[in-house]
Please model this.
Amino acid sequence: MVLTPCCHASGKGSIDSLSGIVCRACYVDVHHKHGGGDTEIAIPVADLEIIIETGS
Ligand SMILES: [Zn+2]
Model:
């Protein structure tokens, strides 16, 4: 678990987030590394491809 840089909170899964993870405290998009082990959400393949294309 990596705490979010904005609120030092844990992340949570969100299908509305580009990364698939938002800060649990303020709901801003955060890196998926903040999701920890409780992010069992389904991300459409198309969204994953978008993340890969824009990730680096
Ligand atoms: Zn936050």
Remarks:
- The CA atoms of residues 27 and 34 lie 12 Å apart.
- The mean pLDDT is 78.
- The chain has one helix and two strands.
- The two ends are 22 Å apart (CA to CA).
